[in-house]
Amino acid sequence: MELSTLSLLDSVLPHSKPQRVVWREVVPITEDPDQPFNLRLKLAAQAGIGLAAGVRFHFRGTQGLVVYMARGTTDINKLKSETNEQYLLSATDVIGSIVCLRNPRRDCLAERRQAREATRRRLRNKMLAVIRIGGPILREMLKREYDEGIVPVLYEDTPSSNISSSMDSRRSAYSLASFQKKTLSIKNRIIMAARKWKGANNDPPPPFSNVEALWTFSGCFLTILMLLYFSDFINEQNSQYSLVLGPFGALVTLQYSLTSAPASQPRNVILGQAISISIALCMTYTRLEANIRRSLGTALCVSLMARLGVTHPPAGAAALIFTGGGYTWVHMGIMLAGNVLAIISAAGINNFNVKRQYPTSWGFGYWIKYVCPRKGSKKGD
């Protein structure tokens, strides 16, 4: 192409303004009263991050922002140098292209899964057709050859045997092979289980610091004290009722030692207790022997909680206690009220700690959407 043509195209085609990397100080933004409070930005400033810059990318309809951070002691001239700026812009292009690739990759994988599923269905239908159509024809052909005195090649070694005896021998051989295979599988499973007893050599979780341990102590002490006073208040109103305190020891352990664990969240606490105590009380109406009733009731509660995704260890303890008998549906209401008080207490105490947050999610909407999905949508969507 001639130089004049290139110059003409250069003058006609629009050019995007070259993108620049603009660095901003983080601390003044966090201390600006006109800016909304941002906990993540505040923590970044406390961690020593003094400068931040955002570079925008746009690929095939996918837009985003890549944020770069630097220490406050970093030389700003080095950050603003031409080579460093070009490096950051190129890195943004790479990151943006990877982000842009996610949706097409997901669609491609879904298409391949559908193709494999269609191939599997076609193969299954063909195999069923061969079995249904070819099976009777093959049996009729073998019977006709046998009646005519033509022994199939399959039975040349045993000319005196008939088809039924040959089939019986083959069936016996297949049964023996199947038994040997199952025996080998059981042996392998025993060896595998024995190896698992050695453990996976994973490191144990780190211990709490003194401050965190003191915070856990305070939370457990105040929550249990509140529940004891609540139980005394209920007992003063009616001496037949009181709070079953056993499961609450496990509950405060979860809320103050495993604060972010799924089993500690309010959804698991409320729904797990409601499911377990309901099943346990229903089991008391049966005529089963006491040990069978308590074992069966606890197993039903734990498995149902796992199936519904609301596993809560204290609820398993409550199921074991309530299946023993001597409790009514009023006790269930008292237990749920005690759990609500424990959740409120844990939220109030844990959230005063900068390093803790409780709850991490309420999750009731997700549980309803998963168990009762809307028409035309899949579970969990």
UniProtKB/TrEMBL annotation:
<feature type="domain" description="HPP transmembrane region">
    <location>
        <begin position="207"/>
        <end position="359"/>
    </location>
</feature>
<dbReference type="Pfam" id="PF04982">
    <property type="entry name" value="TM_HPP"/>
</dbReference>
<feature type="transmembrane region" description="Helical">
    <location>
        <begin position="270"/>
        <end position="288"/>
    </location>
</feature>
<feature type="transmembrane region" description="Helical">
    <location>
        <begin position="213"/>
        <end position="230"/>
    </location>
</feature>
<dbReference type="InterPro" id="IPR007065">
    <property type="entry name" value="HPP"/>
</dbReference>
<feature type="transmembrane region" description="Helical">
    <location>
        <begin position="328"/>
        <end position="349"/>
    </location>
</feature>
<keyword id="KW-1133">Transmembrane helix</keyword>
<dbReference type="InterPro" id="IPR058581">
    <property type="entry name" value="TM_HPP"/>
</dbReference>
<feature type="transmembrane region" description="Helical">
    <location>
        <begin position="242"/>
        <end position="258"/>
    </location>
</feature>
<protein>
    <submittedName>
        <fullName>HPP family transmembrane protein</fullName>
    </submittedName>
</protein>
<keyword id="KW-0812">Transmembrane</keyword>
<feature type="transmembrane region" description="Helical">
    <location>
        <begin position="300"/>
        <end position="322"/>
    </location>
</feature>
<keyword id="KW-0472">Membrane</keyword>
